[in-house]
Amino acid sequence: xxxxxxxxxxxxxxxxxxxxxxxxxxxxxxxxxxxxxxxxxxxxxxxxxxxxxxxxxxxxxxxxxxxxxxxxxxxxxxxxxxxxxxxxxxxxxxxxxxxxxxxxxxxxxxxxxxxxxxxxxxxxxxxxxxxxxxxxxxxxxxxxxxxxxxxxxxxxxxxxxxxxxxxxxxxxxxxxxxxxxxxxxxxxxxxxxxxxxxxxxxxxxxxxxxxxxxxxxxxxxxxxxxxxxxxxxxxxxxxxxxxxxxxxxxxxxxxxxxxxxxxxxxxxxxxxxxxxxxxxxxxxxxxxxxxxxxxxxxxxxxxxxxxxxxxxxxxxxxxxxxxxxxxxxxxxxxxxxxxxxxxxxxxxxxxxxxxxxxxxxxxxxxxxxxxxxxxxxxxxxxxxxxxxxxxxxxxxxxxxxxxxxxxxxxxxxxxxxxxxxxxxxxxxxxxxxxxxxxxxxxxxxxxxxxxxxxxxxxxxxxxxxxxxxxxxxxxxxxxxxxxxxxxxxxxxxxxxxxxxxxxxxxxxxxxxxxxxxxxxxxxxxxxxxxxxxxxxxxxxxxxxxxxxxxxxxxxxxxxxxxxxxxxxxxxxxxxxxxxxxxxxxxxxxxxxxxxxxxxxxxxxxxxxxxxxxxxxxxxxxxxxxxxxxxxxxxxxxxxxxxxxxxxxxxxxxxxxxxxxxxxxxxxxxxxxxxxxxxxxxxxxxxxxxxxxxxxxxxxxxxxxxxxxxxxxxxxxxxxxx
Length: 721
Hints:
By secondary structure, the chain is α+β, with helices and mostly antiparallel strands. It contains 12 helices and 33 strands.
């Protein structure tokens, strides 16, 4: 029992070693993900059209002209990225506010983010044009303002500023710089119980914003002290700005505002309703002026008032966002269902969302199934959809890189909200109408694609095939281990029999021979009895040796099946006049250990029967390898037998059961006076390759059906259960 116990301990040790390797691998992967894949420094890829690593919590975030832009006036819209294990670092970016009475800035050491106002835990520093200050504070699902520092010139919308934050330990410092004026202000704060680690984020409040050149680098205590020294040496800003600083274009030139009347604004033409543009003459159209609210900025500028909507072609003016109230002057072009203002000059009237108009005539909401998606001009995405027999297209900005593009799957049911246009400039006479969507938030996935698509079914079939093959491999390995254990147990029994029964028979025979030699010749009757007893002991000793050889076929592992049978036959006929011959045909192939063991036992029993009962002069053993099976034949020229009660003996019954155990066919032919032919045909596993495995599977199914039909008919010399 020591050998199985030792093997069990080895298996347990091996399993423990495998578990340790798996655990070590998981720990290594976690370390790589934490400190390598999410390591510092970090630089955004907005200029290259990338932003997949950022997660949006509110707002309408999209990439526009190399910057991340939020056109929403939502309170507390956030966009976060990075690792929650980032500790001491410097965060900087260029920031532009897209409206009044709000703020935009950067978040440091953020965690536990949710959608909503100040719904995160971390620190925030930003520019606020409600009071024209640089503000810094702590957010913990609520706002705690630490310090503010005023800007002399004020926080001007549509103007780029550079904002920088350094956090080291429980101290934090921030600065804001105006690159055009070369001025910079600082603000600092510290806490006892501070947030130690967290991600970075972009945030706006009651105003849209734009961010570019976001960069994060590791920070040290020396960098923070140098930053604080600059803050202490900078002169304080003592003058407060006016309550309404001028708005700027992207080139920093002033914009005329409704809150700051100028000569140009007083003398501007009277605005007319958008619906009246359809009444303009198509032959000699005059310039027209309309006022309305921006409802779409990309792929085209679209304005609406209470009477309708109009598209602005080749608009010239400041950067706009959804909700801005503007005045546009251009050349109207009436179409069948709507109008277009060509070469429109835009004047910004108000940078906050005004009171909604009394009616909305341009927006529609539709549902449809996604047929395909493709890239459109100007960083847009074109969706081909259908609902019933109606097909249409939708055009939208990509937003944050390819996130939305990958999210939308073919055959998904989508709900879309946008502006419906029928102009050939958008439809290209290929679809009846096109929906222009403001952002990715105007697309809702109602139902995903069905799982029974051709690709999914192919993947499921491949997965099932892999599982079946894996199960077959595991089953084969388990059978191999089980048979190996059986062979080890047989070898142990053979050793036990050799050390006990065989040696005892040898000792008994020696003692009987010694007793006979000591008896006088006058005891003839005792001599005969001792000779009979010695013969019986010798016969029993030979049977024990044969049984030991049967239990311990070492030659199978060392020299193969056919040489092992040859060695077995020669040992059985040793000292006799029987000639033994062997032959092999076909290409030798590896066989399962179970098949080899069964064939050896069947051949050994057939050879023993020949030696015991047939009185032959020759014995021939043949092994033939074919494409899908192996045949073993044992033939002699002995006395033979008739198909009767002899076939019900224990030896042939055992041969039949062993053949059944490996799905083999046993055939016995015998003629009185002319010998016996015993043949067993065992199937072999096919040699699978990438080209031949489909044919092997079809052949196996055909043979299975054919064999099932044959098994239903009886045959006098085929032995089955």
